[in-house]
Amino acid sequence: MNDRYDVVIAGAGPAGAQCARDLAARGYDVVVLETEAEDEFPRQSNKSTAGTFHSMMAAFGIPDDVVMQYTDSVVLESPTEHYVRDQTGAVLEFADFKRYLVSDSRDDGAEYRFDARVTAPIMENGEIVGVTYNGDEAVYGDIVIDATGPSAPLAKKLGIVDLKRENHAIGIEYEFEGIDIDRPGFADLRDAMMLRLDHEIAPGGYSWIFHTGDDTAKVGLCYIQNGSHDQYSRDDFTIDDYLSHWLETDPRFRNAEPIEGKQHRGSAHIQEPEQFHTDRFMAIGDTVPSLDPLWGEGINKCMQSGRAAAATADSCLKHDGVEPTAENLAVYETLWNRDVAPNAKNRLLMTQLLYLAPNDRYDDLMRDLQRLDDDTLAKANKGNARAIAKLLEPGDVPLLIDLAKQRLDLDLGSFL
């Protein structure tokens, strides 16, 4: 078995597999190490709501046969109001989608090693030159990429990321049949992806219903272990309890039944990234946190970061004598800030404001969105400061003060 490659990638999720896909298409020798067994890939615990938009499908050449349902609209709900926006999208069968990325990159020559848990970087003269996996096995590469998500075994040991618990988001999702998709008194969710802001259901986070055809849908919730969650959560409730509570109290689920084998769990971090790379190394996907404030869109962000890392690796490897030093890999950070998460600070601010707001403010937000043009929401979601300001009201001053205090506490905690 070969033990030397141009690029070694840890993790076969959307970021790692897309990076391998681009590198293999350019003719590089690339190996991907994936913890899961191939016959189990991907396990139920390693899945996503898989809602995305046509821009991602087109940009990455994703085939229609991994789509469960194409959608025509996105819906935002608050406890008593809702807002509907016409916007086409796609709900993916995430397992099929991930397997497609692996298969497509394999067709171009990428090698995959399943049942391969990456444990540590191999260092020589202060630089990473390879990784160990499954305890005592080793593989070497000119460039090493960590695409393992929040576990980040390489990025953490190299001091690249510091994923903080107070920014840790955890999620749970079930697929159901028997859902009343067009329930009177609620928005029509046929061919729609819906996100609900309601601390009774997801304190410090959001819940969702993504229509997948007929009376079926993906239903789940996610919350961040932040100050807002501490304020609104119940001490005796787990994330499973919150989902059960929603299912028991929302009339749309009165006749709903879970589909066997369709339970998913996952996690991510919602925080501003600190560092992206060092000599011969890049961190991609959920290893470097990024977020679309309203829609999440984690798939697109991961794919974009994988592509940016592949382009960066190519810029070094295609030239003889150009070493993949931290200085030469700095183009990855530039591409990340330009293509993956532009205006990252403002987007994080928008996210924190959303989750810190009380329920009655969510109702006001739905009414505000109905009177504003759609461009305001789209621009705010992209971190446009003027658009974010349009969504604020005079009564939001205490909210802004609370957010400023939370940020100051975090900064002081890091300093001390």
Automatic annotation (TrEMBL):
PANTHER family registered for this protein in UniProt: DIGERANYLGERANYLGLYCEROPHOSPHOLIPID REDUCTASE, GERANYLGERANYL DIPHOSPHATE REDUCTASE
Name the UniProt record assigns to this protein: FAD dependent oxidoreductase
Taxonomic source organism: Natrinema pallidum DSM 3751
Origin: domain of life: Archaea
Molecular function per GO: FAD binding
Listed InterPro entries: Dggglyphlred_Halo, FAD-bd, FAD/NAD-bd_sf, Geranylgeranyl_reductase
Domain FAD-binding per the UniProt entry, residue ranges: 5-306
